[in-house]
Amino acid sequence: MPGGRPAALRRPVALLGTATALLAATLSATPAHAAPPASAAGSARAASAPLAHSETYGAPARPRRAKVVYLSFDDGPSPYTPKVLKVLARYGARATFFELGQNVTRHPGLTRKVVAQGGSVQNHTWSHPDLTRVSASVFRSQVRRTDRAIRAATGVTPECLRPPYGAVNHTVRARARALHKKVVLWTVDPQDWARPGTSAIVHRVLAHVHPGSVVLMHDGGGNRGQTVAALPEILKALKERGYTFRLIACG
User: Fold this and answer.
1) Which of 102, 148, 167, 238 is positioned for an S-S bond with 243, CB 3.0–4.6 A?
2) pTM across the whole model
3) Which of 107, 124, 128, 218 is catalytic?
């Protein structure tokens, strides 16, 4: 036929047109976010990488960490302890008190008051030595004498031990385990013991606190007026940020 293709060529061309149409239909049905096949190495990296949009892929969203702060006070009890307790009560906050055995024997009523208000009393040794520098017998005496004093005041034996100065090593941890004690340190230290000023204490806590923080402050060991003055500002700001306050788990 003039101007046309030979019959032998018209059939392959028709088949090619059909295949092209089917390919176009397939591509138009592919979701817009689908990625091209990756290499074996690329697939392994993709499998290990976090998903940026978990809802797109049906993966469960990662739960948020609870906004909890663990307040702790060292070196009491002392005449400043009731003032600290008064502020805590005003803001509905509880705290863990790491007390010195020799101070418990001087102020057993204050130790009982901490527990009566919902606080926790734990072991901070008898007289505040560096536990990395004492013998095994002195270590046991420092801890056990304090246990007895706290038990006599509250009826409860402490299960946590906070080494003075945060001085801890393998030996301290091993000796603590032998006495069935959990060593507890801290993550936020405003160094209130040095009396840097009320505003400095407030700023140092609020600038470094995050969910799960253990805050170290002091209700004994010297003049703690700055700590008492800083505490309402700290608690008010943390509550406004949505934080709650829990006792340190020692069991």
Assistant:
1) 238
2) 0.75
3) 218
Catalytic, 218? Answer yes
Catalytic annotation, pick one of 74, 75, 147, 219? 74
Q: What is the pLDDT along the chain (251 residues), one digit of tens a residue?
A: 444 444 444 444 343 444 444 334 433 333 333 333 333 333 333 333 332 322 222 334 445 678 999 999 999 999 999 999 999 999 999 999 999 999 999 999 999 999 999 999 999 999 999 999 999 999 999 999 999 999 999 999 999 999 999 999 999 999 999 999 999 999 999 999 999 999 999 999 999 999 999 999 999 999 999 999 999 999 999 999 999 999 999 87
Is 74 considered catalytic here?
yes
Amino acid at 191: Q
